[in-house]
Design brief:
- The protein is α/β, with parallel strands linked by helices and 280 residues long.
- It is built from 11 helices and 7 strands.
- Strands 1-7-4-3-2-5-6 form a 7-stranded mixed sheet, with helices on both faces.
- The radius of gyration is 22 Å and the shape is globular.
- The N and C termini lie far apart (77 Å).
Length: 280
């Protein structure tokens, strides 16, 4: 194709199935459902080369599928084995529903054992209105018995704070919301922090969590990264938690991991201390 910048030469016009922002080039002809079928039929390499105009070396993927089988990272039950002895965490990464693209809210529930292995129990990413978000949050709190949930701070005060508190009163279900700061990190940078855990088989997935597994399997080439990003985000919480299972008694302080600020924060929040010989 001749152009003004190259009147005597040629320019190549590349039309991928997705624009760089993740929207579809031709929704009526190549929608997400049809692209998924083509991808399953032709395989990752051909799909990305032919339909996304991004040929890549399969060995360059950050989370190869072979590791899942080699490290036996799947489980088939609703909850992980010995889940009663594990710590549990819920994170909600809000998205602005006013935006037309990349506006999926991600919700992740994980259990963590005493080896710091992370068991992903739920991983949801979808466009949601505020009422849907609140319904899902209350369902998760009730189903897993959460007393504390974590929500990304940026949009909480503008979108959810008042409605969530009002709904707690109406339902008579109370729990604490801890806010997480964004820290201005890019998604890819956060997700890369999962690699050491993944490579040593320390993250376990349900076989039906196709959305999360696909996001990790395509990384860094994937357009959708919401559940993978929320899983990486929750590692900020997991790494602050004690290594022992919930309910266990630690008889000595580990001054390498516990700071006076952490202890003071626990007291101010009205929690029982998780370190030392037990509550006062």
């Amino acid at each position: 194709m001749q152009s003004e910048t190259k009147p005597n030469g040629c320019e190549f016009l590349l039309l991928a199935a997705h624009h760089p922002d993740g929207t579809l080039l031709w929704p009526a002809g190549l929608g997400e459902k049809k692209l998924r079928k083509l991808r399953d039929k032709q395989g990752e390499f051909i799909y990305w080369t032919q339909y996304e105009c991004k040929p890549y070396n399969p060995g360059d993927r950050g989370f190869p599928a072979e590791t899942l089988t080699r490290c036996n990272m799947f489980y088939d039950t609703d909850l992980p084995p010995n889940h009663e002895r594990m710590n549990k965490y819920c994170l909600i990464d809000l998205a602005d529903a006013k935006r037309t693209i990349n506006c999926r809210t991600a919700i992740v529930v994980v259990f963590v054992d005493d080896r710091r292995h992370v068991w992903v129990v739920e991983a949801i990413a979808a466009k949601m209105d505020p009422l849907t978000k609140i319904d899902i949050i209350h369902r998760i709190v009730r189903q897993y018995g959460f007393k504390v949930i974590h929500i990304e701070e940026n949009l909480y005060h503008n979108m959810l704070e008042f409605s969530l508190k009002q709904e707690m009163q109406l339902r008579g279900e109370w729990y604490r919301v801890e806010l997480l700061k964004h820290r201005n990190r890019e998604k890819d940078s956060r997700i890369l922090r999962l690699q050491p855990h993944y490579e040593r088989g320390a993250i376990h997935f349900k076989r039906g969590q196709r959305q999360l597994l696909r996001e990790l399997g395509d990384f860094p080439f994937s357009y959708e990264k919401d559940t993978a990003d929320a899983l990486a985000y929750i590692m900020d919480i997991v790494r602050q938690a004690p290594l022992t299972a919930a309910g266990a008694v630690v008889t000595e302080y580990d001054y390498n991991t516990i700071t006076p600020r952490q202890v003071c924060r626990e007291i101010k929040q009205g929690q029982l201390l998780r370190w030392g010989s037990g509550p006062f």
